[in-house]
Structure formats: structure tokens, C-alpha cells
Amino acid sequence: MTGLTAELVVDGRVPQTPALAPNGHLLGYVLASTSRIGDHLDTEVWLADVDDAGASRRVTADTATESRPRWSVDSGTLFFLSDRAERGIPQVHRLALGDGTVTGLTGWRAGIVDHLPLADPNLVVLLAEDEPTEQDARRAQDRDDAVVVGEREPRARLRLLDLRTGRITTPDVFGDRHVVELRQRPDGGPLAVLTQASADKDYGPRTGQLHLFDPTAGSAEDLGPVSAEPRSLAWWPAEDGWHLGYLALTPPVLHAGTAVFDLALAGRVLRNRTADLPMCPTELCQTDTAPLVVFADGLNTTLARLDPTGPTTLSQHPGRLDDLTTTPTGEKLAVLTGTRYQPANVHVGPPTGPLRRITDTRPELEGITFGTQQPLAYRAADGLDLDGLLVLPAGQTASESPFPLVTIVHGGPYDRYADRFQLFWFPSAQWLATAGYAVFLPNPRGGQGHGHQFAASVAGRVGREEWTDILTGIDLLIAQGIADPDRLGIAGGSHGGFMAAWAVGQTERFRAALVNAGITDWGMQAATGEYGQYDVALGGSTGWSGIGPHPHDAVSPISFASRIRTPVLIQHGAEDTNVPLGQAVYLHRALRHFGVEHEFVIYPREGHSIRERNHQLDVLRRTRAWFDRWLHP
Hints:
four-stranded antiparallel beta sheet; 10 helices; 36 strands; globular
């Protein structure tokens, strides 16, 4: 029997972004490493024969970062992005299935952000920033590189690549707006285009607009503003003409979950098609007829068709479905999914199921004994229905309890734990279960999978009812004899890191805590985090909301630092722009001031997620050692 090591976790390879050919016979996908060595993540494009038991072969040979496979309408060509010519500068490449040759199609000096082959076999739409000028080069050489905020900000613009000539043109459309997504109408007509005022993550997603673009005439038409964070465009025909749908946050709160919005182009009538559903849409997928919708449904996933009367359930699946791709008819699909004890792989099948696995990218995990995973259902103190997961120590049963229990809170908070394989590079349930811990994965209110109101209930109230939701679950596991009340730990990253920092300021029940990239002061987070306006919605106020105390002070862990007695491990990326490093420094200085035992670890060159192999290994090993020190499994 093989034991689970940190190397086995971080050295794995995972499939990404499957793309099913229109004829349904072939599937392109990217194979990516879990960790990175050096400055660039090396990935590969693979091709699978859907009809031949999923036989796969690598179709690129160079060391490069490769991404975004896209098929031509006739299924004869696979386009993708690769930086094989110059690392860090992706260009469009073409794999011709006839002779297997790969050809570079662009040499755009700024690199290509995204691409979409059109129904016209001679055209590919590109998203790319402006190329640098000679003046830019001179300024860089002279170190005249002062950044004036708001000036010369990079924007992705729509451009057209003519495959006959190799020429790239830039239609004069959308002004100075940043283009984020596009989708062509299934009959080869115009493109739906989503734009933002800028690429700034705090400001841009709240300034979305929808447009139509005619690639033949080069003309555009504005369809008006859309809700925040629009994505996942899809067209479909109806009795009253063409409809255009997308996912976006439910207004007016910037934390109310996603909805499917349906714009009838005749009459410009806009409807929220998922307003009253007890689940949350995560993907909208275009077909020639009605689009498919993936719903986060509690711990599991529902796949539905968006009919005129509302979503019609086609199939239900354990865990998650991600990166859905279909044939134009929608009769065959490919998706990333797994099981409780197997990581996500590419699966294919009809929308009604069943789905058949056609890749196996982690065979090295076979033979490892993982902890038994089981769903939990319970009620909050106010009667709200909640769910979560319990993972028992590997090789042990509930009859051998009580166990040391580590509660890991998910990020977001608009995210969820699904009933899938819980092994990742960050401290995860199976990583701790194989070291002798029981692990509780709660889904408190504010998360995904239970509808809009469930998600919106934490706006301005983080750390309130969601905290008691978590405590209720822990108390349930203690009452059942699963958890040892004298050996409790708590952990989390991002918003989960906030909850871990909040927990130790509210109670001394926990013997150890891990705060990974966590928020400690909501006012500072709103002022400096790259999603500041979203953080305002969660924390409830800003520092410029007049003379304090402010509402966000009452829900900031730093306000309760004098109460902390629990040993805390703090981990943070030095270059994190989502939750800046200052949040961790603030907690570290407070704990040092009050004499609280803690360890503060900064990972150079890392952002909100830790990517370098050695750093991932350190995160895993250090986390286990920390809980081993205080909880003694």
C-alpha cells in the first residue's frame, strides 16, 4: 500500500478546458501540472478519440504554456494558444488533423488573450491588447515607467485574423472599452460581445455592457448595461426570435449569487430565469436549440435545459460538473467530473447521462487508502437547512472515535464544498485525513448551491450567522461522539482564512488555527484588495464612511485580537493582490503584541494561490506539522 506524500499531491497533472469537436468524435483538452517549477507553468494540448474508449495522445511537443483549445466548425482544425515562440507571450496556433502539423498563426507582440474561430472558415476573432510602440520601448529603456492610474491602462480589443493572408485588423468598435467575452450566433450570424469600462477588477465587472458585432460589415450595436460580473454567453432561437443569455450577479447586492439572465432581442425584454430556484447556475452552454445550464445544487450538481417555461432537469450528478462543452445539437457533451475518491477527469455522454470517463490523469493515486467521506445535513440555530461533508481518518470508522477534528472553511464566501474528491495542494480534507484527523467541511450560509437569498444573507454580516452555522455543525459532531472537544482545530483560505481568524477571536475552543491568505480588517480590505467593492458588500462599510466606529469594525477579526489565545499559523503570498499581504502583517503584529504563539510564513513571488512546487510542498508539510504539534492525532 502506498502512503500519501506531499510530492504525490503537488506533482500530479490535471485535465483542463475540454473542447468537444462539433462532429462529436474528437475532444481536445489541456493537461496541466498542479505545481510550477520556474517562471512558467508548462502545459500540453492532448487529443482524445471519443469513439475509441477515449484513447488520448499528446499533439504538441514543445515546452510551453498552452491553453484555450477551440475547434473549427468543420471539426478539421483545432486552434489553441501557445507561448512556445516566446514564453509569456501566447499566440494562436493551428493543429491540422489531416497531417498533424502545428502552425503558428499570429505574432502579435502583446500576445493573444483569447480567440474564437467563426462560421466563416477564413476568420478567427481575437482578443488582444494593443501592441507596444517604439515610444513604449524608449520609455522602458530610459526607466521612464511611472504609472499614472487611469492612463494607458491595458485593454483587450476585438480583432479579426484573416487566415488567408495572416493579417490582423482592429475594427473601430466599442470605443476604449475592455472586451471580456464573445459568442457567435449558432446560425453563423452576429457575435454577442461583453465589454467592461476597464480591466480593473474592482471597477470593471460593475460596468458591463452587451453588444452585437457583425464580422462581415465590421459594425456594432449596443444592447445596454448588464448586471455585475457577466459571463457565459449563449444564444438560442425562440418563437419571438433570438434570445441572448448570460450569467451575472443578482442585483442590487454585489453578493447575492448568480442568475441566468435572458434577453429577448425583439423588444429588448430582460428576465431573470432562475430567481426563485433553490440552487445556483454556474455555467450556461450554447447549443443550436435551448442552452444547457449547470446548477450547483447543494453538495451535488443538476444539469438542465433552459426551456421557455423554465429549466428542465436532464440529469443529476454527485459532486461537481465543470467546463461543460457540447456538440452543436447538444446531444453529446464532455465535462470535468470525478467521484469522492477519484480526481476530476474528462467524461463524455448524453445530457441525460450516464457519463463515461475517457481520461485517467492521476493513476499514481491508486492504492492509497483515503478517509471515508460522507455528506452531512443539519439545521442552523434559526432552522435554516445546511449541509457539509465529514471525512473520517483514513483506515478508521466512526466506531473508533472520538477523533481530533479540523474544520476547514471554504473561500468565497460564494463557493461551496461539493461531494467530490477532497485532495488539493492547499490543506484539504484527505491530506489531513491520511494523517489521522477527522475533517469537517461546512457549507454555511453565504455560499453557493442554495439560491440567491441563501447567498445574500451574509452581505454586511460576515462572521455572524455563518459563524454560528459552523459552530452548530461542530457541536453536532461532538454530540455524535465523532469529534474530541479537547482536540479541535480550524483552518481556511481567503474568506475561509477570515473565518479561521474570526473563530479564534470569538472562542478558545480551538487548540490550533491556520489562517491562509485571510482577511483580518474589512476596511483595509475594501481599500486595498482588487475586488474592493465586493468586500464592501461583505464587510458593510468603508473607512471613508465617516468617523468610526464603522460597521466593518464589528466584523473584523483584528478588532478581537486581544481575545485570541489559540496558536495561529499564518500563511500568505507576498504578491497577493486579492487579499494583500498587509492583512497578514496586521494579524501577525497584533498577535506579537499580545504575546500569542504564532508562526508567520510569507511565500515570495506568490499571489492569492500558491503555485511554485517548493512552496506548495511547504504549505502541506507545515500545516500537518502545526496541527500535529497542538492536536496530537
